[in-house]
């Protein structure tokens, strides 16, 4: 036996692999336990077992295997490395577990597989399960099929890849085993649930019977789409969302069902067929045969092959060439139709792979539409529709346009129909304006075609396009279309159905839809390159074009795309032109223009010009006038004067009137013909410029160049045309220019014989090069070498020039803006910015012709690239090089070349590696920016090559990296973690090359992705590398890393290093810190102005200090003026930048504060501003100010700072809200200016600060805490400046701050200023402290007056005389505030310092006592006022600001300043009011209102005065102003002051505010703050001041004021409910402690305070938020239970309050938040369950809690259980069980009672039943007719003191006589106290009559709630067997009455001197609350453990309590004797 258990001594992991199965069994069980105990998922314990899991699941013993599976499950649920074990474990499970005969083994194996799926190993799991399909054992196949089905059912198609499943499971349907077939059938049904009909093509080969069965199963499936029910580890958020929806979710609507359709293309599930290998070898030969039968047979053999639904991609170039030739040239229509069908099948089979052949095929098909055979036309339609999805309209645009212009009507008609079908599958992005414009123009033209088929097709195409893009983009093209044609288009649009199923589209949508792509494309606008900077080399210039190429979506404000500016007017007939010209001019002028006499023609032109000048703009018909000018002799005018007049007229018309493009078309030819004329050429250029400004340069440039080079042959005209265009581009900018159509004409000019033409072309190319960069060079590579040399020389000449800012084209832009509306403003701004940058509005890379080489990258070539022989691989690489060299520029379609190159980059042959790297460089250069898609595949290989030992290999790799970076930037390297992965390779050469490369490249970028931080650990490692070159390159890259990631962030990242490494790295970083470069600046915008602001602020250029700042007058250049010099151009650019609002409204202040609190940005705390602080501030200010202002604020020249600050000051009123929104960053900027040395800048800064703070004070705004902390410390630094004028303004600012910021907090900042070494600063700070003490009293001192005074007194010993004097003066101010107490505050001083202080105090006393009031200083101050006015040249401030802060001595005291307490021996005479003078402040008058002015005497009639009645003046009652927020905060803070006098005054002021309803609203948001302050003062008063006899009166007075304040607060219901739970808890705790404190009773007025506190406690319970109050009381009760040492009386009073709330519960149940109350009760029972109360002396708190629960359950019934939603696990709560027991008891009792309802809680029904039994009422009597009058008289008697008893007796008799009469309306009008009084009186009468006749007291119902039955809290009078209870009631009442009379209550009182604290008027306070006898009797019947609370006297030490454990504590007393005593006491009270 010993040997059997020997394995127990082995470790658990060894037991798991033991040869004895019992040992393994024991090991598995222990492993489960170990795994369950491990809490850390990365524990090393798991790694011991990771390699054993496969053995666990393959155990040979079935029992042990099952336990092994348990261990695996436990391992997978807890181990972090669990996913790594997936492959071997799943494969073992499939083989060894799925065929197990044990059911549990199979279930656990399945669960393990599901867990692996949750761990996101679905690929591995599915691979192993699919392998199981081929297993020989049917059980395994069935199990694998079942598991796949369950996985798909639970995880859905997004997790489980369906493609391999669909391909594999079809064979299972034909399996020999029945179970396999059935499971495969179920899997098919499950697949159909997820992918629908996409499955059916995969089932095409199964038997019809099986298909029929599956179809039946498919029909049974519900229509609701399936949902994922089990989630991956990374999908826990989806799991939580799914659980939140619940199981009872409503069915989704139709839209949701549409969205839920699986996005799986059946095409993807099909198996591709290789048809190239199956094509007959003689196919191509047969297609060349002349016999048509041979050709037809060849095509018949091809057709089945291409009809396969999915075809393997390959090289189909030869096949398509044959088919295309057959379609185009074969004469046999049958063969043509067959060829078209083959082409259609091929296009459908390879889809997108057909793209290289699509353009050529579409061209052929469109030409073949001329065929009339319907079979051929139908086939051609199908072919075009199949081919189009593989291409785009942009690619086939030229062919489509040519087909639309074809002479054959059939071709035109079919082309329109093809367009309509193509538009159906297009989206808005597939129809850009560049495509839509030419198509729309031609289609509109075809609406007037002579053939109806063409017209119909054009209408359909336009209608379809309109449905796709909306009405707005097409509206300009349809503006001139006739109404009947528009109606036809509209009719067609209603019938059009787009591919997405859309049938209708509202016309109001396009505008909204257009905004979305704009907003979406906006972020893509930011290019990393500096577009404004000129690159130094042609290669660098490509960056600009590359940046432009990156722009996606809608291009902003491109003139070629702006259809609003392309409106063309209708063409007028010649007769109509003459008629309109005659009407506008005169017949004489028309005749003279045609005269043969040149003088008459000249006179006519002069008169013509005069008339045009006098016409209104709208009256000028430019087309009419231009066509009149063109009439014979027209532009062939022989006289140059007349000709010049005509040319000038064209310019005038273009400038003055609406000049359309149709009008321009009439003058272009004439102007170009004369542009080379010596006499007229200059005029022609001016007119052309005007026309271009009216119709956009893009249109004019294209038209004139085309005409110059195609319509006329004069070389001089050609040369001058090119020269004009070169100049116009510089004036208009490059945005509106369409370069592509100009290139062929420029090439023609370069090839011209005339040297002037060639020179003009080269000059034009040079101008275009400034905008386009190196892309332009590639367009002319085919030119001769000599010509290229001239072009390169021109490029070098302009290489350093920046593109000038455009200043023309504004007219067309304004027109476009007016047409486009506000939506185009943003586009216009973007256009201007791009124009200035020179990038243009186009993708420059699109201009380069590109070749698709994918067809040349054949499968054979790919195989050669992967061949085992290196020579063959090398030859293949050479072929690729040749292909690339021949292609030049290529499309971004490499086919499989990318993957092949990736493999060759890792080639073992170094020569091939180098070749592959060079090919990568070539590919990148040839492809351009689209090469980004190949970054992830090629760049990692290049990084790996940089580790090679051969320099040539590394150089090739670096060249490839440079090429990639040039085209796509560094961001893809970082975002895809390519860079960090490469640096992780620990190879010195790699790190040398990569860090050296980064040191060069990182400096080019302003921003990079944050993932750059992933490379920092490798950078740190390289800084300590053994290789010196690695360290050197890493140190070179370090400053650039710190530039992008910030120094502080990188310092934090060193925390993960070892201590020794951290020290070394931090030292290197500190050394490199000064070398951190500035980030590259953003391109400056030019010409950008805000059009959305109505008010434009003009910012003058910087001026010197001496010169006055004059507004800049901007003149507008004439449109025909010649070009300015470069200097004037730059000036114009600067002028344009001056426009724009200086401050921009934004809401980023809170986010900036949050970022600073979360340490995302640097905290604004420095000695001197470092560069990182300035950069951070600049980034934060960027969205707050305009670009021009931002540039000025951070300019190196101080003059720009002055200019910006002046602009801020002048526009403060205009941009007040924006200033406040950005105040934090503005103040931070101003602190930076404090460190300037220029006095003017500092003065401007202070001037602006004063203006801002004055506005804030006027608007009653306050300074935020973070704004103050980032500004005030730096302001205090400037108070010690050497210059007096600066110190003076700083003092003024500090005085202003006290109006917008608490003076006490300001005091703390100034105290910190005393630590400075600058004696002048200390002096100024001390003087400011004295001012604060004088204005605000000693309470302003922080942290406390003694500490502040002691620190100030320490300055007396300073060696600087001014500091000593200021310190003494400040202490004197403190002495005048507190008197002799100042000596206590300053503490011990040496004799010398104390002597100086005493001497200064004496001198100040004498000076104040003897100094008469002086008027001279005021006068002199007024003189200073006049002399100190600012120079108006320095800026204009808001009106009235000077008087408020230019003279600090005249400042008014802040509104928050309290009245100064002058307790000293003397005070200043200037502060004492004159004997008979008025205190204007107390009267509420301003000093301006009280100025003495001579009244104006009016003439009066004495008789009228005598006859008029005398009207006495009304007394004006001055009300104190409503305090603002800061004053209120100050008053509330003073409530908790250590000085009781200050606290009393604050309480009194607040009480005044509370007494007026219209003023107390300001306290609504400060209730908690006030209650906290009062609770704190209450605690301090009783703990600190109560023991001091000298302050006893102040304590009582403070308590009275506090109680009065709180009484006023809780009398106001709106304010009372604002108190929160925690605050109420503190308040109730304090009030109860006051009631229990005996010390207050012995003080004078103390008993009255106690009574008031008792009443206050009642008010708090009644008026505060009931949910918060009950929660606070439960919390107090829980705290008492936690502290067993709590005073019993305290616990009793807390429970008393709760009992009162239980009584109120029926009336307040609607206001209670039951869920919160149940949560508090749950916490109580959880902390102190019922079982824990058995050891306690009393379980009354527990019973109280259960009473509350019982009451809630009674009222709510079963609904109470639904309020447990806040409890995490209600089922496990003790409260839940108790509530269910109460509900069950209530149900039983309700079933047992027949006459009572379930809502009867108080037993009123029992009272009525008792009355009936006692015979009090035997029959219902009818109420008397005057019931209301009788009851009114009775209640009137009850309300009087004399007849109270009589009224109660009459009411009792009335109720006995008429029990059915409802007296609720009378009771509802009375208070709760009065109702309780009536009930007690009726009960007393019932007792008396019961003794005589046994009559039961009637029940007086309480007012009802709306939804509840009437409930009462009084029970019936106990019968004779309950005399003990009756005696208790009487005894308690006697005690109360004796206490009211001041009598002793006998030996029950421990101290006879104590009396009850309840006032006589409050008869129903907590002291006298009735116990809920009926309620608790019901409780005792349903559960004996409930507590029946007795009355406890609140605040009296005589409170007693009878508990159920002491039933015999009541002595046996004669009840009759007690009644007599009670009657005697009542009689004495009535007297």
Write the layout of secondary structure elements.
Layout: H1 12-15, H2 21-37, H3 44-50, H4 53-57, H5 62-78, H6 86-96, H7 103-118, H8 122-131, H9 138-155, H10 163-169, H11 178-195, H12 208-220, H13 236-245, H14 254-259, H15 266-269, H16 283-287, H17 292-306, H18 317-329, H19 333-350, H20 355-368, H21 374-387, H22 397-404, H23 409-424, H24 433-446, H25 452-469, H26 471-474, H27 483-495, H28 509-521, H29 538-549, H30 574-584, H31 587-593, H32 598-614, H33 622-630, H34 640-656, H35 661-665, H36 668-674, H37 681-695, H38 697-710, H39 715-732, H40 742-750, H41 755-772, H42 775-778, H43 785-798, H44 810-820, H45 825-837, H46 859-865, H47 870-887, H48 897-905, H49 910-927, H50 935-945, H51 951-968, H52 971-975, H53 978-983, H54 988-1001, H55 1016-1023, H56 1028-1045, H57 1047-1053, H58 1059-1072, H59 1126-1137, H60 1149-1157, H61 1171-1181, H62 1187-1193, H63 1198-1210, H64 1216-1221, H65 1223-1233, H66 1239-1258, H67 1265-1278, H68 1284-1300, H69 1303-1313, H70 1319-1336, H71 1345-1353, H72 1361-1378, H73 1381-1386, H74 1391-1410, H75 1416-1427, H76 1442-1445, H77 1480-1483, H78 1502-1507, H79 1525-1535, H80 1540-1555, ...
């Amino acid at each position: 036996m010993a040997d059997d258990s020997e394995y127990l001594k082995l470790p658990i992991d060894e037991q798991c692999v033991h040869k004895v199965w019992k040992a393994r069994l024991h090991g598995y069980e222990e492993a489960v336990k170990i795994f369950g105990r491990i809490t850390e998922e990365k524990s090393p314990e798991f790694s011991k077992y990771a390699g054993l899991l496969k053995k666990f699941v393959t155990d040979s013993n079935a029992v042990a295997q099952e336990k092994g599976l348990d261990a695996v499950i436990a391992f997978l649920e807890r181990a972090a490395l669990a996913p790594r074990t997936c492959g071997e474990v799943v494969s073992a499970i499939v083989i060894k577990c799925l065929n197990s005969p044990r059911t549990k083994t199979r279930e656990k194996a399945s669960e393990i597989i599901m867990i692996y799926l949750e761990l996101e190993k679905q690929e591995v799991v599915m691979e192993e399960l699919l392998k199981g399909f081929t297993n020989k054992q049917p059980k395994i196949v069935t199990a694998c099929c079942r598991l796949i089905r369950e996985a798909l059912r639970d995880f859905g198609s997004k997790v489980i890849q369906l493609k391999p499943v669909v391909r594999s499971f079809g064979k299972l349907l034909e399996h020999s085993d029945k179970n396999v077939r059935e499971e495969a059938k179920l899997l098919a049904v499950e697949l159909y649930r997820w992918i629908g009909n996409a499955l059916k093509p995969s089932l095409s080969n199964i038997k019809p019977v099986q298909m029929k069965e599956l179809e039946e199963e498919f029909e049974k499936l519900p229509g609701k789409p399936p949902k994922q029910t089990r989630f991956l580890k990374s999908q826990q958020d989806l799991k939580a969302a799914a659980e939140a929806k619940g199981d009872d979710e409503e069915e989704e609507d139709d839209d949701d069902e549409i969205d839920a359709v699986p996005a799986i293309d059946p095409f993807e599930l099909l198996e591709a067929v290789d048809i190239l290998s199956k094509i007959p070898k003689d196919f191509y030969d047969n297609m060349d045969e002349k016999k048509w039968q041979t050709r037809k047979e060849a095509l018949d053999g091809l057709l089945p092959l291409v009809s396969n639904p999915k075809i393997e991609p390959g090289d189909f170039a030869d096949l398509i060439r044959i088919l295309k030739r057959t379609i185009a040239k074969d004469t046999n229509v049958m063969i043509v139709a067959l060829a078209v069908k083959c082409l259609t099948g091929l296009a459908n089979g390879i889809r997108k792979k057909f793209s290289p052949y699509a353009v050529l095929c579409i061209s052929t098909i469109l030409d073949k539409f001329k065929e009339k055979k319907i079979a051929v036309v139908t086939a051609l339609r199908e072919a075009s529709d199949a081919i189009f999805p593989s291409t785009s309209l942009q690619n086939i645009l030229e062919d489509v346009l040519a087909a639309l212009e074809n002479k054959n009507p059939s071709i035109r008609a079919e082309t329109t129909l093809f367009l309509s079908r193509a538009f159906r599958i297009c989206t808005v992005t597939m129809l850009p304006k560049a495509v839509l414009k030419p198509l729309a123009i031609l289609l509109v033209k075809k609406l007037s075609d002579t053939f109806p088929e063409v017209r119909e097709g054009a209408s359909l195409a336009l209608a379809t396009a309109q449905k796709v893009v909306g009405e707005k983009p097409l509206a300009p093209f349809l503006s001139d279309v006739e109404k009947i044609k528009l109606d036809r288009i509209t009719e067609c649009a209603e019938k059009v159905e787009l591919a997405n199923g859309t049938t209708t589209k509202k016309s109001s949508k396009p505008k909204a839809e257009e905004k979305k792509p704009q907003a979406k494309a906006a972020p893509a606008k930011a290019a990393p390159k500096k577009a404004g900077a000129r690159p130094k080399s042609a290669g660098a210039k490509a960056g600009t074009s590359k940046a432009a190429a990156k722009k996606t979506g809608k291009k902003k404000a491109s003139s070629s795309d702006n259809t609003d500016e392309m409106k063309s007017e209708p063409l007028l007939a010649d007769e109509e032109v003459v008629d309109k010209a005659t009407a506008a001019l005169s017949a004489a002028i028309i005749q003279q223009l045609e005269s043969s006499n040149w003088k008459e023609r000249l006179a006519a032109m002069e008169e013509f010009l005069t008339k045009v000048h006098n016409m209104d703009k709208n009256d000028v018909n430019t087309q009419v006038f231009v066509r009149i000018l063109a009439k014979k002799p027209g532009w062939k005018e022989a006289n140059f004067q007349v000709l010049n007049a005509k040319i000038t007229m064209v310019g005038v018309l273009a400038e003055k009137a609406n000049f359309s493009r149709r009008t321009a078309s009439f003058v272009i030819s004439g102007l170009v013909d004369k542009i080379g004329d010596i006499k007229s050429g200059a005029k022609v250029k001016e007119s052309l410029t005007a026309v271009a400004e009216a119709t956009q340069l893009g249109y004019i440039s294209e038209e004139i160049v085309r005409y110059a080079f195609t319509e006329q042959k004069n070389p001089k005209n050609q040369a001058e045309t090119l020269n004009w265009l070169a100049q116009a581009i510089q004036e208009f900018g490059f945005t509106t220019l369409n370069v592509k159509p100009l290139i062929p004409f420029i090439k023609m000019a370069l090839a011209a014989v005339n040297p002037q033409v060639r020179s003009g072309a080269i000059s034009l190319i040079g101008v275009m090069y400034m905008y386009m960069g190196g892309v332009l060079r590639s367009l002319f590579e085919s030119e001769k070498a000599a010509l290229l040399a001239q072009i390169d020389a021109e490029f070098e000449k302009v290489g350093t020039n920046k593109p000038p800012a455009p200043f023309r084209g504004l007219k067309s832009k304004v027109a476009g803006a007016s047409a486009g509306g506000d939506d185009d403003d943003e586009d216009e701004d973007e256009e201007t910015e791009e124009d200035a940058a020179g990038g243009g509005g186009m993708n420059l890379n699109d201009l380069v012709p590109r070749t698709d080489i994918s067809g040349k990258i054949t499968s054979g070539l790919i195989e050669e690239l992967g061949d085992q022989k290196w020579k063959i691989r090398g030859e293949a690489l050479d072929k690729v090089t040749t292909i690339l060299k021949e292609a030049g520029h290529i499309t971004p379609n490499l086919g499989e070349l990318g993957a092949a190159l990736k493999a060759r980059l890792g080639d073992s042959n170094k020569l091939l590696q180098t070749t592959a790297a060079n090919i990568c460089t070539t590919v990148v250069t040839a492809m351009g920016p689209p090469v980004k898609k190949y970054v992830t595949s090629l760049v990692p290989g290049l990084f790996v090559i940089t580790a090679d030992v051969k320099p040539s290999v590394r150089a090739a790799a670096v060249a490839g990296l440079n090429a990639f970076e040039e085209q796509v930037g560094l961001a893809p390297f970082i975002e895809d973690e390519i860079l960090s992965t490469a640096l992780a390779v620990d190879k010195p050469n790699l790190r040398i090359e990569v860090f050296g490369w980064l040191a060069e490249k990182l400096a080019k970028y302003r921003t990079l992705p944050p993932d750059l931080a992933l490379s920092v650990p490798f950078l740190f490692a390289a800084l300590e590398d053994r290789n010196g070159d690695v360290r050197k390159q890493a140190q070179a890259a370090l400053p650039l890393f710190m530039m992008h990631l910030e120094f502080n962030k990188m310092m934090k990242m060193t925390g993960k290093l070892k201590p020794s490494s951290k020290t070394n790295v931090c030292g290197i970083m500190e050394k490199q810190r000064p070398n951190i470069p500035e980030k590259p600046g953003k391109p400056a915008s030019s010409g950008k102005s805000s059009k959305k602001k109505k008010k434009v602020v003009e910012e003058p250029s910087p001026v010197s200090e001496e010169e006055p700042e004059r507004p800049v007058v901007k003149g507008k250049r004439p449109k025909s003026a010649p070009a300015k010099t470069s200097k004037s151009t730059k000036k114009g650019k600067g002028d344009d930048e001056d426009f724009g609002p200086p401050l921009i409204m934004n809401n980023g202040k809170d986010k900036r504060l949050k970022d600073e609190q979360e340490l995302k940005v640097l905290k604004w705390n420095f000695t001197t501003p470092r560069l990182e602080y300035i950069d951070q501030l600049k980034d934060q200010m960027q969205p707050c100010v305009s670009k021009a202002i931002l540039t000025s604020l951070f300019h190196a020249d101080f003059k720009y700072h002055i200019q910006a600050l002046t602009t801020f000051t002048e526009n403060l009123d205009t941009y007040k809200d924006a200033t406040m929104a950005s105040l934090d960053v503005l103040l931070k900027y101003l602190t930076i200016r404090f460190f300037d040395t220029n006095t003017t800048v500092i003065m401007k800064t202070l001037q602006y600060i004063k203006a801002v703070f004055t506005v804030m004070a006027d608007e009653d705004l306050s300074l935020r805490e973070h704004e103050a902390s980032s500004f005030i410390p730096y302001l205090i630094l400037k108070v010690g400046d050497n210059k007096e004028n600066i110190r003076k303004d700083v003092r003024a600012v500090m005085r202003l701050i006290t109006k917008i910021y608490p003076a006490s907090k300001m005091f703390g900042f100034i105290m910190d200023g005393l630590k400075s070494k600058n004696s002048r600063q200390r002096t100024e700070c001390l003087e400011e402290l004295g001012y604060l003490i004088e204005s605000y009293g000693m309470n302003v001192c922080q942290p406390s007056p003694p500490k502040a005074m002691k620190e100030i007194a320490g300055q007396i010993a300073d060696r600087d005389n001014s500091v000593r004097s200021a310190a003494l003066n400040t202490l004197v101010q403190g002495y005048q505030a507190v008197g002799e107490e100042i000596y206590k505050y300053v503490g011990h001083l040496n004799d010398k310092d104390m002597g100086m202080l005493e001497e200064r105090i004496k001198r100040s006393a004498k000076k104040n006592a003897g100094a008469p009031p002086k008027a001279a200083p005021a006068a002199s101050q007024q003189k200073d006022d006049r002399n100190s006015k600012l120079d108006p040249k320095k800026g204009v401030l808001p009106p009235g600001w000077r008087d408020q802060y230019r003279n600090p001595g005249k400042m008014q005291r802040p509104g928050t300043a309290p009245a100064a307490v002058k307790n000293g021996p003397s005070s200043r005479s200037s502060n004492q009011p004159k004997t008979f003078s008025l205190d204007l402040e107390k009267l509420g008058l301003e000093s301006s209102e009280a100025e003495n002015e001579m009244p104006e005497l009016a003439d009066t009639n004495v008789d009228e005065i005598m006859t008029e009645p005398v009207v006495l003046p009304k007394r004006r009652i001055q009300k104190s102003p409503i305090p603002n927020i800061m004053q209120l905060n100050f008053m509330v803070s003073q409530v908790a002051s250590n000085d009781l006098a200050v606290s009393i005054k604050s309480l009194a002021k607040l009480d005044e505010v509370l007494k007026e309803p219209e003023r107390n609203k300001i306290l609504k948001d400060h209730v908690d703050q006030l209650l906290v302050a009062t609770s704190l003062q209450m605690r301090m008063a009783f703990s600190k001041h109560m023991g001091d006899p000298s302050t006893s009166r102040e304590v009582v007075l403070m308590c009275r004021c506090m109680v009065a304040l709180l009484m006023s607060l809780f009398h106001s219901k709106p304010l009372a409910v604002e108190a929160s739970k925690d605050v109420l808890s503190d308040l109730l705790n304090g009030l109860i402690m006051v009631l229990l404190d005996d010390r207050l009773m012995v003080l004078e007025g103390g008993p009255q305070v106690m009574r008031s506190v008792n009443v206050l406690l009642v008010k708090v319970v009644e008026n505060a938020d009931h949910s918060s109050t009950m929660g606070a009381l439960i919390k107090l009760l829980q705290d008492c239970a936690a502290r067993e040492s709590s005073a019993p009386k305290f616990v009793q009073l807390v429970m008393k309050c709760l009992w009162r709330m239980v009584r109120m519960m029926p009336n307040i149940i609607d206001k209670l938040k039951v869920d919160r109350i149940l949560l508090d009760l749950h916490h109580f029972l959880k902390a102190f369950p019922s079982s824990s109360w058995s050891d306690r002396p009393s379980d009354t708190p527990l019973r109280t809690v259960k009473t509350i629960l019982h009451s809630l359950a009674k009222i709510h019934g079963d609904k109470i259980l639904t309020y447990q939603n806040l409890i995490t696990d209600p089922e496990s709560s003790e409260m839940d069980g108790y509530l269910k027991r109460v509900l069950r008891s209530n149900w039983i009792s309700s079933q047992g009672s027949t006459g009572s309802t379930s809502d009867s809680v108080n037993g009123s029904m029992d009272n009525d039943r008792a009355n009936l039994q006692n015979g009090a009422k035997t029959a219902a009597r009818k109420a008397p007719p005057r019931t209301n009058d009788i009851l009114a008289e009775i209640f009137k008697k009850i309300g009087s003191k004399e007849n109270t008893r009589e009224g109660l007796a009459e009411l009792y008799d009335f109720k006995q006589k008429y029990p059915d009469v409802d007296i609720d309306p009378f009771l509802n009008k009375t208070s709760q106290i009065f109702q309780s009084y009536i009930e007690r009186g009726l009960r007393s009468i019932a007792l008396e009559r019961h003794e005589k006749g046994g009559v039961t007291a009637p029940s007086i119902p309480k007012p009802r709630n709306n939804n509840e039955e009437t409930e009462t809290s009084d029970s019936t009078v106990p019968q004779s067997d309950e005399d003990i209870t009756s005696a208790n009631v009487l005894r308690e009442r006697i005690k109360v009455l004796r206490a009211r009379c001041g009598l002793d209550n006998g030996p029950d009182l421990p101290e006879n001197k104590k009396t009850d604290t309840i006032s006589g008027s409050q008869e129903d306070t907590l002291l006298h609350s009735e116990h809920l006898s009926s309620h608790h009797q019901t409780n005792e019947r349903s559960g004996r453990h409930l507590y029946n609370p007795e009355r406890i006297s609140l605040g009296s030490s005589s409170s007693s309590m009878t508990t159920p454990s002491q039933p015999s504590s009541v002595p046996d007393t004669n009840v009759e004797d007690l009644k007599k005593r009670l009657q005697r006491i009542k009689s004495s009270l009535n007297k």
